[in-house]
């Protein structure tokens, strides 16, 4: 995403705390182009206080005289508002608006994300000049959102489009080879034989159902080691138990007669 071609537009902003917080939200998400109208400027003490590390962004922000200057030179205007005055097909949810912005930026266009006054939002006249209108998801009982929070949500959604992949190449697990899989099958078959799980008269009948459970899956080498150890130890324990039971059994002929 070309972040240099995206602008955050604040129309008639009045709260210096919000102005500073918006600058922080932009810095946190990697956006740097700010334009705003209203009575505030970069010298506002509270705005500077709440901008914190984003103070350079505030100082470089473009203070505009009016709405016309605010949107000048931009190809796509996305207005954020909880209300929709017209059913004209310009209303998009946040994911679809993000796709629209992504496409415009990929085409080399300049995009403005427009946010209105803290108390009144955007007027119908403002919204009429927007190419797209977006209502940020909020609870139905309280759709009004703090200005800086609204900006952060919108910018965060856009950052998802330019998130770096976790790795350039998928991690290939260290899988057991066919010989190791055969060794596991041998151990399983031996264990089941000793446990007398298989029918002595027709042992292959049930084995044909059991074998694919272990044969068709790709096991990692670690999984293979664990399974081999489980069945080997299980077989040894079973044999030891059988011997103990044999030793504890009374000798033949010692019964009471």
From TrEMBL:
Q: Which UniProt keywords apply?
A: Methyltransferase, S-adenosyl-L-methionine, Transferase
Give every tRNA/rRNA methyltransferase SpoU type domain span: 6-156
Report the Pfam families cross-referenced here. Answer: SpoU_methylase
Which cellular component appears as one GO term in the record? Answer: cytosol
A single GO BP term for this record reads: tRNA nucleoside ribose methylation
InterPro entries, alphabetized: Alpha/beta_knot_MTases, RNA_MeTrfase_TrmJ/LasT, SpoU_MeTrfase, tRNA_m1G_MTases_N
Q: Which SUPFAM superfamilies match?
A: alpha/beta knot
Where exactly are the transmembrane stretches of this chain? none
Chain segments annotated as coiled-coil in the UniProt record? none
Give the Gene Ontology MF terms in alphabetical order.
Answer: RNA binding; RNA methyltransferase activity
Task: Name the family the entry cites.
Answer: Belongs to the class IV-like SAM-binding methyltransferase superfamily. RNA methyltransferase TrmH family.
Protein name per UniProt:
RNA methyltransferase
């Amino acid at each position: 995403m070309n972040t240099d071609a995206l602008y955050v537009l604040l129309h008639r902003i009045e709260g210096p705390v919000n102005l500073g917080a918006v600058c922080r939200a932009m810095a946190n998400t990697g956006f740097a182009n700010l334009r705003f109208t209203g009575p505030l400027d970069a010298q506002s003490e509270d705005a500077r206080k709440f901008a914190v590390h984003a103070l350079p962004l505030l100082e470089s922000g473009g203070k505009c005289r009016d709405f016309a200057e605010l949107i000048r030179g931009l190809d796509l205007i996305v207005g954020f508002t909880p209300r929709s005055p017209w059913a004209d097909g310009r209303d998009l949810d946040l994911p679809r608006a993000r796709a629209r912005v992504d496409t415009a930026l990929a085409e080399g266009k300049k995009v403005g994300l427009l946010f209105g006054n803290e108390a009144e939002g955007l007027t119908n006249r403002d919204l009429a000049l927007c190419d797209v209108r977006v209502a940020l998801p909020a609870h139905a009982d309280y759709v009004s959102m703090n200005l800086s929070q609204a900006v952060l949500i919108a910018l965060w959604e856009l950052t998802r489009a330019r998130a770096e992949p976790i790795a350039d190449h998928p991690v290939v697990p260290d899988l057991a080879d066919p010989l190791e899989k055969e060794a596991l099958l041998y151990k399983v078959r031996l264990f089941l034989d000793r446990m007398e799980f298989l029918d002595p008269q027709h042992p292959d009948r049930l084995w044909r159902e059991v074998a694919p459970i272990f044969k068709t899956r790709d096991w990692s080498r670690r999984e293979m080691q664990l399974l081999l150890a489980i069945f080997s130890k299980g077989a040894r324990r079973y044999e030891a138990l059988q011997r103990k039971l044999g030793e504890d059994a009374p000798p033949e002929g010692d019964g009471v007669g």
